[in-house]
Task: structure prediction
Amino acid sequence: MTAEVTAQEETQQRASEVPAEEPRKNVAAAKEEEEEKVLEVEESKAETMGKSSSYREESNFLSDLKEFERKALNELKAKLEEAILGHNLFDEKTEESKKMNEATEEDNKKEEEVKKQGADEEGEEPLKEQEEKKSEEEEKSVEVEKDVSLWGVPVLPSKGEEGTDVVLLKFLRAREFKVSDAFEMLKKTLKWRKESSIDSVVDEDFGPGLGSAACMSGVDREGHPVCYNIYGVFDNEELYQKSFGSEEKRIEFLRWRCQMMEKGIQKLNFKPGGVTSLLQVNDLKNSPGPSKKELRIAVKQVVSLLQDNYPELVAKHIFINVPFWYYAVSALLSPFLTQRTKRKFVVARPAKVTETLIKYIPIEEIPVQYGGFKREDDTEFCSEDGAVSELTLKAASTATIEIPTLEVGNTLCWDVTVLGWEVSYKEEFVPSDEGSYTIIVQKGKKMGSQEGPVRNTFRNNEAGKVVLTIDNTSNKKKRVWYRYKTINNTF
Result:
């Protein structure tokens, strides 16, 4: 069963009313207009930068790599293999190791004297036992390093796991295929994860407060899991202080942020051709501004932490409901971001949220609060209910969507939305029997630009069709999405 869509162009003459020009503009209105223009310019710049890099993930198949990329990958694998087997993966030139290397001959002599004395008094057997014990500990340590993994993927190349190349390529791409830089980045990441017990962070409980600040929901058009970060919750002073009020609390906030990344990464597939990165949507509506010092510090720490330890794990960063102050903060953070990271940023003003998200995420996967059809704990629609249909409504025209229902006693359920709305909309049930009366399901009303998606249901007592009428009185074309299903009522 399919819905029938008809569209008619109507010649509509609209008398334009020209208000009398005020002698002096309101200062607040003028400032708002100026900020709006700046937002449009900055948004355009961000869109241009976002388009400069492909949205699709770069191939992880060896056959698709360029010659210099394959060479860099092989060099990194060789260095990593040597470091692990040589028990040097976590060794760094720290101040402590420098002091040990610069030990005086006198200290060495004392050590030799102690060893000699022990041998003279107890024989050579204790020394032999100590050396064997030391050797066993070293072998055990090497075995531990051989089993080191990152995001569930073994990092020892000789184990032959196909996901190893995928993970190593992320570090190489983050460092422009500079092998030494990528190797140092990988070592620091592994060391940080080990010292911070990141592998167990997914099981930690950070309470209900931070739980409202982010969630994983659906996938985008390329199959990337989508994470929504809701910064507006920190407008609550109690939660703000709980999250950023002290250095200790900021550290806990950083661990929570790592937890969200780790949960998202669990949904990825580190194999050639698999989805190996996330889509991040950052909602800045009602978010505290740059005047909050603690938040500025935390944001800078998050940016540094994620960029240094989660390379190439985000396909796009989409910032929505962007306020005017965002661009000032962005300029401050810019020196700490790589060009590769900057190219992944997309920004959208409040009026452009749905329009921007729909470019990357199917309408049925976009949460209803952002203009999509996805509802939490939805009992009426699910992913198996079929695809969403789209139509383009020309300027000054009317379209009708007809949903037939031939069986009596069933319930029809539908979703419909118009990008930007500013149209007239009504719903009717038209019986097949010409002698019956048309039933008004939803009276005709003018839908403003801030309207969300419409969901409604209708149970028919006779055969007929539900007709959705959309009247576009504007001089711009409109995009319309809709879906419906029939629910068989059984008693």
Q: What stands out?
A: The longest strand covers residues 478-487. The CA atoms of residues 42 and 354 lie 18 Å apart. The chain is about 40% helix and 20% strand.
